[in-house]
Design a protein that fits this description.
By secondary structure, the chain is mainly beta. The protein has one helix at residues 22-25; strands at 34-42, 45-54, 56-57, 63-64.
Length: 72
């Protein structure tokens, strides 16, 4: 399932269980923009449940980085 990520410069994954703190288990690099996929394991099947991204494009069409790990 994670083989598709190998074509990107930086990639990885982590598991989030009920009761976990996202800021403790997330291994995303600080101060970088990116795309993330969230999967759920349900009834023995893996389902894509969310696609999101971090950062935003400013007026010069450059990606500005947000501090996404604060207050998680």
């Amino acid at each position: 399932m994670f083989d598709e990520l190998n074509k990107y410069q930086q990639n990885g994954h982590f598991f989030l269980a009920p009761g976990d703190q996202l800021s403790k288990v997330c291994n995303a690099p600080d101060k970088q923009a990116g795309v993330f996929l969230a999967y759920a394991l349900k009834n023995g099947r893996i389902e894509l449940v969310f696609i999101g991204g971090t950062g935003e494009i400013d007026k010069k069409k450059l990606i500005s980085i947000q501090n996404s790990k604060t207050n998680l």
